[in-house]
Specification:
By secondary structure, the protein is α/β, with parallel strands linked by helices. It folds into two domains: 57 residues, no CATH class; 283 residues, 3-Layer(aba) Sandwich (Rossmann fold). Helix 2 runs antiparallel to helix 3 and helix 15 packs across helix 16. The structure holds 3'-phosphate-adenosine-5'-phosphate sulfate. The site of 3'-phosphate-adenosine-5'-phosphate sulfate has 21 residues, from helix 6, helix 11 and helix 17.
Length: 357
């Protein structure tokens, strides 16, 4: 045996033992902090998954913490916590477009639409490069080929940034909120469907908290004890800001996109100051159907380097893509209780009629 082989076997044994010893996400965080290398962190995630130890990494619950500007925020994956202080100070460019949503509202869908609108409907280019590289997820740190917060700072100045975020309006970059730079496209989704989609997504993301049963997860969702916190305050705040300045914020819903995609693409293009032909609008709409995006390696999150963070064995990222899937999960009592909560929280906002259950 040569020396390199002995060294490699030794290293593999050490890493294997370390992975076996790791009991929680927190420990992976500490290791990543010490080695300061997010790619290694992703490999650790993968290794632990291969050893069948994924469940032990999941935190028990979401954590509430105070952000740089004093806002109380909630997160499960520590990766999201780490980046917030930087986000607040980001230099926003005038032509930045933020695709903002509460998780599972159709973010990926809207990112692809906006990217195509802003890039001359270049379908070939869109297929060639995964969406996570074309459109940055601001709330995350760079992971392998996935673009996170750091890449925003070094993004070429001649290329427009299409920025994905789930952050509440209050903790977006100061330049975007106080400074009013860039535009925001906000997508909201019927909260019952959002909750069902989020429940399944928790089985995919290795670093998210344990869901418990469906009923237990629903309770957490209603209490805002999940990553990105309370659904109601998220959407209400963006809605209020949209009403103050509709020239800078576009507000739409998943259900509106489903109802008439070409009409919505046209309207978003107008908001972004792009004049698209009917043919271009239809090309985007066809490229962005659920089936098409589910089969597209560039948008379905499969086979990318950040995959180490995901476990697609039970559910795919492009799971169902339907309006009303909640009816397969909510009991009659759960639905009635949710309706009461919805009525109470939404009263007087003008948002009540946006969602029909
Ligand atoms: S994330 O992780 O928060 O960024 O997820 P997000 O992209 O917001 O939401 C994922 C859900 O959107 C569905 N989806 C679509 N539905 C219809 N048409 C298209 N093109 C489309 N693309 C994504 C996806 O399937 C998830 O919803 P569920 O209900 O889980 O299927």
């Amino acid at each position: 045996m040569n020396v390199a082989l002995i060294a490699a076997s030794g290293l593999a044994a050490v890493v294997g033992i370390a992975a076996w010893k790791i009991r929680s996400c927190r420990e992976i965080d500490i290791i990543s902090f010490v080695i300061n290398n997010i790619a290694i962190k992703m490999r650790l995630f993968k290794l632990i998954a291969m050893l069948g130890l994924t469940e032990r990494m999941r935190p028990d619950k979401a954590v509430k913490f105070v952000t740089a500007n004093g806002f109380v925020h909630t997160a499960e994956s520590p990766m999201f916590r780490a980046v917030l202080d930087y986000v607040w100070k980001l230099d926003v460019r005038d032509n930045d477009v933020f695709v903002a949503t509460y998780p599972k509202a159709g973010t990926t869908w809207m990112q692809e639409i906006v990217w195509l609108i802003c890039n001359n409907v270049d379908i070939e280019a869109a297929k060639k490069t995964v969406l996570t590289r074309r459109s940055v997820f601001m709330d995350m740190i760079d992971v392998g080929h996935a673009r996170g917060f750091q890449s925003l700072e070094t993004w070429p100045s001649d290329k427009q940034r299409i920025v994905k975020t789930h952050l509440p309006f209050e903790i977006l970059p100061r330049d975007a909120t106080v400074g009013k730079k860039g535009k925001i496209v906000y997508v909201a989704r019927n909260p019952k469907d959002s909750c069902v989609s989020y429940f399944h997504f928790h089985h995919i993301v290795r670093a998210f908290a344990k869901t418990g049963t469906w009923g237990e997860f629903l309770t957490k969702f209603c209490n805002g004890d999940v990553s990105y916190g309370d659904w109601f305050s998220h959407i209400i705040k963006y809605w209020e800001e949209f009403r103050k300045d509709p020239s800078r914020i576009y507000f739409t819903t998943y259900e509106t996109l489903q109802a008439d995609l070409p009409r919505e693409v046209k309207s978003i293009a107008e908001f972004l100051g792009r004049d698209l032909s009917d043919e271009q609008i239809n090309t985007i709409a066809e490229h962005c159907t659920f089936e098409s995006m589910r089969n597209n390696k560039s948008t379905n999150h499969e086979g990318t380097a950040e995959e180490g963070a995901f476990d697609f064995s039970k559910f795919k990222f492009m799971r169902r893509g339907q309006v009303g899937d909640w009816k397969n999960y909510f009991t009659i009592n759960q639905s009635a209780e949710f309706d009461d909560l919805f009525e109470k929280k939404m009263e007087g906002t003008g948002l009540e009629s946006k969602f029909e259950f």
